[in-house]
Amino acid sequence: MAEKKKRRRGAELEAAILTAAWDQLQAKGYRDLTIEGVAAAAATTKTVLYRRWPDKARLVIAALSKFGEMPSYQGVDTGSLRGDLLDLFGQMAAVLAKLRTGTLRGILADRLDKLDLGQLMGKANTSHTVKELIQPMLDRAAARGEIASADLPERVVTLPGVLLINEVIGQRQLTVDAQVAMIDEILLPVFRSGTVK
Amino acid sequence: MAEKKKRRRGAELEAAILTAAWDQLQAKGYRDLTIEGVAAAAATTKTVLYRRWPDKARLVIAALSKFGEMPSYQGVDTGSLRGDLLDLFGQMAAVLAKLRTGTLRGILADRLDKLDLGQLMGKANTSHTVKELIQPMLDRAAARGEIASADLPERVVTLPGVLLINEVIGQRQLTVDAQVAMIDEILLPVFRSGTVK
DNA sequence: AAATATAAGATACGGCCGTATCTAATTTGA
DNA sequence: TCAAATTAGATACGGCCGTATCTTATATTT
Predict the structure, then answer these.
(1) A29: alpha, beta or left? (left if phi > 0; alpha if psi -120 to 50)
(2) Among the four residues A26, A50, B62, B186, which has the most C-beta atoms within 10 Å?
(3) What range does the domain containing B53 cover?
(4) Measured between alpha carbons, how far is residue B122 from residues A77, B75, B170 in Å?
């Protein structure tokens, strides 16, 4: 029974690390998760982690992508712009509900410079941007005659993402009421106002 | 020529620390400013700083309040809602222009949990909340008949602050174009839509 | 003026970050 | 098969955080 000095490498090692990261995230939450802690839990050293991910936020995002069961969003055609938006927000809320409180806020805080809602909330590989999700809805709405034009300004198209992020930051729950309110009080009025690009 | 063991205390000491913090902020920027560095620059120790401010963000906010020449915002009656908003945004932009790039973003990142635009952007003592700034404008607009009701939902009233913060986070400059766009494309349509609380 | 309370200053600690450097295991490919 | 290239793993470093503890100067109170 000699000690095996087997070394994990590549994908095997990476999977072990991400598993450890995921466990730590569940156990201690984002704030108290440390790179060194994950390394120790994965029975390796932080040097190895830093070779793969530049910081805690990116490590956790990788773990979320692998184990978080984050669906890639589908822009479903529900027949109305309001329905489409409600559906999208509902899907977002479902994802958020799976995250420990503070996880998203922590990641956001650490990544304030390079916000990318898609990469943050979708699978890393399918990274939708907010615009990619919203624009098709607007196109359909314009085709239906619900809104005057689908050619809206950048700031308007990305507004749903802004509202969503703000809601999360405000540590409020993303309740159904909040979703409805954002859509009826803000988004629909803006989209319908038809201020064109 | 005996060494004087004079100790600064209270306000005198505090002023010296905040001066040092302000200098460091100018010299190194928010990210590279450290509590220990400020303590050293002020010829004291971090123990003293921690007795007064709980973290870097709060220390810097205190320094900004003292030396940043941040005006407390005035809700000027320009005669129209659009004018009022433009005026407010213009004042905000002027304040932001005085800050080194990244300062506000850094503070935001460190304080994501307790966002308070007023305390952040106004003098600490006059801490306006967004609502306190916007509501009077809405009241006047309703009186003029520009909007149907001034009794708008919380989320709508605080929307200007959200847009502003988002603009800052996006490391974009708060240009006049951006101000106009936010107001014409988003805020006025929402306020005018008259969705009541 | 002496006793007491307060707060500054000095020092040390454990924790984590992010980097650098060295070694040795494992894979690669000539 | 054996040398070369990778890369895991170990270790150490300086930097900063935030806290605790102790001393001593200064202010307050009696």
Answers:
(1) left
(2) B186
(3) 10-67
(4) 45, 13, 21
Is 80 exceeded by the pLDDT of residue A3?
no
Q: Which residue did the predictor score with more confidence, A182 or B92?
A: A182
Asked if the structure places residue B85 within a domain, the reply is yes
B:28-57 Cβ neighbours of strand D under 7 Å = 34-37, 46-47, 50, 54-56
Q: Does residue A106 lie within any of the structural domains?
A: yes
Which one of B165, B185, B192 has the shortest CB-CB distance to A155?
A: B185
B126 lies in the same domain as B179:
yes
- Indicate if B93 and B189 belong to the same structural domain: yes
Q: What string of H, E and C letters represents the secondary structure of chain B?
A: CCCCCCCCCHHHHHHHHHHHHHHHHHHHHHHHCCHHHHHHHCCCCHHHHHHHCCCHHHHHHHHHHHHCCCCCCCCCCCCCHHHHHHHHHHHHHHHHHHCCCCHHHHHHHHCHHHCCHHHHHCCHHHCCCHHHHHHHHHHHHHHHCCCCCCCCCHHHHCHHHHHHHHHHHCCCCCCHHHHHHHHHHHHHHHHHHCCCC
Asked if residue B12 keeps its beta carbon closer than 7 A to nucleic acid strand D, the reply is no
pLDDT mean over B79-101 = 90
- CB B39, CB B49: distance < 8 Å: yes
Residue B75 domain-assigned? no
Q: What is the pLDDT of residues B19-69, one digit of tens each?
A: 999 999 999 999 999 999 999 999 999 999 999 999 999 999 999 989 887
Size of interface A-B (CB pairs under 8 A): 73
Q: Looking up tokens 């300004």, which residue turns up?
A: A153
Interface test with B, best of A187, A193, A196, A197 (most B CBs within 10 A): A193
